[in-house]
C-alpha cells in the first residue's frame, strides 16, 4: 500500500477537524473507532463443482444518527482496512448531508470479472445470509459500490425477504425500479458530482462553459458525471477506465462512450486517440475528477497534476500527503464526502419511498437532490471561509459538529 493505510488516513482527517473545532477528547474516543466489524467466510460452489471460500466484511462505523448506510464492493483489493475507512467516510458523508443515517460499508475479496452470473448470485446470497444478524431496514441498509449493481441489490433483497417470509424492499437501495428502486438513483452520484462542480465554480464567479474536464473511471459515477457536466457546457477531453485512456482536445462524445461501456464494458473500444492510462491524471485540464478507486493521487504523482480543481467522485482518491502538496500548489480539492454524496441522498429518498409505499417522479427526486447538494455546498463553503480552512476540513467540521450535537443529547449508554 502507498503511504498510510486507508484507516490511518481516515483518522488523520478526523483528527484535523477535531482539532479545528476543539472536539471533546472523550467524544473523539468514540468517533475514532468503528462500532462493529464483521468478517466472514463465504463458501460457494463454483460452476466447475469445486468449492471456494471467499472472505467478506461489513463494517458499521457509527449509528448515532440512525441506521447505518453504505455500499458493498466486490474487488480483489477489498480489505478490512479499506472497509473500515469507507464506513467512516459514509458516517461523515451522511452527517454532512444531514441524513438520518450512520455509516457502513461492506465488501468481498474477489474478482467479479472472473465469476459467472450464477456464481456472483450465489456469492451475494451467501454474503447476505452471513451478515443477516446485523442487517435490517432500521439497522443497516446496503447499496451498490464498485463492481456491484442493481441486480446485486435485487439478490440481497430477495435473500433477506426469503428469510423474513415477506417482501422487504427497504432493506437495500439502488435496486431495480420494478422492485421499489427510486427513479434517478442510478444517475444520482454522477449528477451530484456535476451539481457540486457547478456550485464551486459559481461561488468563484466562474462557469462550466467550455471548462476542460478529465475523468478517471467511467463506471456509474464517472460516466454519469461526464454526461451531466457535458450537458452543463463542460468539455470532457479525457476519460479512462481499467482498460485504458482516451483523449480528444475538442471534447469526447460522452453518450457514445456510455453506449460503448454498456456494450463492451470498456472505453477503449470507442474510436479516439489512446494514451497511457496513468497519464489521465496529468492532462492539461481545468477540472480533474478521480471517479475510480482510492489512493490514485499520492505523494509521488501529486506534483505532476496540472488541473486547478479536483472533484473527488471516488471515495478517498487523494492521500493526505498529496493533499498537502496540492494545497501548496493552490489546487482546490472538493472532498469526496461532499462531491459524491448524491448517491446516498437519493438512496435515502429510495428508503423513504420503500418504507411508505409511495413513489415519486424523477423530477421531484432530482429537485430534492439539487436542494440537498447545494445546501451542503453552501454550508461547507461558508465554513471554509469563516475558519480559513480547506474545503475538506470544512466538510469534516460540519459533519463532526452535527454528530457531536447528537451525542450532546443522547449521552453515552449506560
Ligand atoms: P463502478 O464499478 O461502476 O466503476 C468503477 C470504474 O473505475 C470503472 O470504469 C473501472 O474500469 C474504473 N477503474 C478501476 N480501476 C481503475 C484504474 N486503475 N484506473 C482507471 N480506472 C479504473 O464503480 P462506481 O460505483 O462508479 O464507483 C467509483 C467510485 O465512486 C468508488 O470510489 C466508489 O466508492 C465511489 N462512490 C460510488 C457511489 C455510487 O453510487 N456508485 C457513491 C459514492 C461514491
Report what the structure shows:
The chain is of the alpha/beta class. The chain has two domains: 34-181, 3-Layer(aba) Sandwich (Rossmann fold), CATH 3.40.50; 186-339, NAD(P)-binding Rossmann-like Domain (Rossmann fold). Helices cover 45% and strands 17% of the residues. The protein contains 13 helices and twelve strands. The protein has helices at residues 6-20, 25-31, 80-96, 117-131, 150-164, 185-203, 220-231, 254-264, 320-328, 336-339, 342-356, 362-387, 391-410, and strands at 36-45, 51-62, 68-75, 102-109, 140-144, 212-216, 235-241, 244-247, 273-275, 287-290, 309-311, 332-334. The strands form two sheets. It has a seven-stranded mixed beta sheet, with helices on both faces. The chain has a five-stranded mixed beta sheet with strand order 1-2-4-3-5. Strand 7 and strand 8 form a beta hairpin. The two termini are 40 Å apart. The mean pLDDT is 97. The structure holds nicotinamide-adenine-dinucleotide. The site of nicotinamide-adenine-dinucleotide has 24 residues, from helix 7 and strand 7. Nicotinamide-adenine-dinucleotide (NAD) binds at residues 144-147, 189, 216-222, 240-242, 277, 291-293, 313-315, 340, 343.
Q: What is the CATH class of the largest domain?
A: Alpha Beta
What number of structural domains do the residues give? 2
Mean pLDDT: 97
Ligand names: nicotinamide-adenine-dinucleotide
Give the count of helical stretches.
Answer: 13
CATH topology of the largest domain: Rossmann fold
Amino acid at each position: 500500500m502507498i503511504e498510510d493505510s486507508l484507516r490511518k488516513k481516515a483518522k488523520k482527517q478526523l483528527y484535523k477537524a477535531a482539532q479545528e473545532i476543539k472536539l471533546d477528547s472523550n467524544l473523539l474516543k468514540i468517533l475514532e473507532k468503528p462500532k462493529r466489524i464483521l468478517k466472514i467466510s463465504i463458501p460457494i460452489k463454483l460452476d466447475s463443482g469445486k468449492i471456494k471460500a471467499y472472505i467478506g466484511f461489513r463494517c458499521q462505523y457509527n449509528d448515532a444518527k440512525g441506521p447505518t448506510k453504505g455500499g458493498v464492493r466486490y474487488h480483489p483489493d477489498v480489505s478490512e482496512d479499506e472497509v473500515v475507512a469507507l464506513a467512516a467516510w459514509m458516517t461523515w458523508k451522511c452527517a454532512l448531508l444531514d441524513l438520518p443515517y450512520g455509516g457502513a460499508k461492506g465488501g468481498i475479496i474477489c474478482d467479479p470479472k472472473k465469476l459467472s452470473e450464477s456464481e456472483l448470485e450465489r456469492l451475494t446470497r451467501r454474503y447476505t445470509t452471513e451478515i443477516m444478524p446485523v442487517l435490517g431496514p432500521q439497522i443497516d441498509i446496503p447499496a451498490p459500490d464498485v463492481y456491484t449493481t442493481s441486480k446485486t441489490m435485487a439478490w440481497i433483497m430477495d435473500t433477506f425477504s426469503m428469510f423474513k417470509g415477506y417482501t422487504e424492499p427497504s432493506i437495500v437501495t439502488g435496486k431495480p425500479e420494478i422492485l421499489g428502486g427510486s427513479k434517478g438513483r442510478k444517475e444520482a452520484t454522477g449528477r451530484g458530482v456535476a451539481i457540486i462542480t457547478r456550485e464551486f465554480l459559481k461561488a468563484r464567479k466562474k462557469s462550466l462553459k467550455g471548462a476542460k474536464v478529465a475523468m478517471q473511471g467511467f463506471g456509474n459515477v464517472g460516466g454519469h458525471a461526464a454526461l451531466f457536466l457535458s450537458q452543463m457546457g463542460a468539455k470532457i477531453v479525457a476519460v479512462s477506465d481499467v482498460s485504458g485512456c482516451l483523449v480528444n482536445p475538442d471534447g469526447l462524445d460522452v453518450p457514445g462512450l456510455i453506449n460503448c461501456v454498456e456494450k463492451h464494458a470498456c472505453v477503449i473500444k470507442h474510436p479516439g486517440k489512446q494514451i497511457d492510462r496513468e497519464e489521465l491524471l496529468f492532462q492539461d485540464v481545468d477540472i480533474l475528477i478521480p471517479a475510480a478507486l482510492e489512493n490514485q493521487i499520492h505523494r509521488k504523482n501529486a506534483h505532476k497534476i496540472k488541473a486547478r480543481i479536483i472533484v473527488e467522485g471516488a471515495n478517498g482518491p487523494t492521500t493526505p500527503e498529496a493533499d498537502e502538496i496540492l494545497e501548496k500548489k493552490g489546487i482546490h480539492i472538493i472532498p469526496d464526502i461532499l462531491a459524491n454524496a448524491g448517491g446516498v441522498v437519493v438512496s435515502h429518498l429510495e428508503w423513504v419511498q420503500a418504507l411508505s409505499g409511495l413513489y415519486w417522479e424523477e423530477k421531484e427526486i432530482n429537485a430534492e437532490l439539487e436542494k440537498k447538494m447545494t445546501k451542503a455546498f453552501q454550508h461547507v463553503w461558508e465554513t471554509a471561509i469563516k475558519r480559513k480552512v480547506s474545503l475538506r476540513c470544512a466538510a469534516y467540521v460540519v459533519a463532526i459538529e452535527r454528530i457531536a450535537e447528537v451525542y450532546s443529547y443522547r449521552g453515552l449508554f449506560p
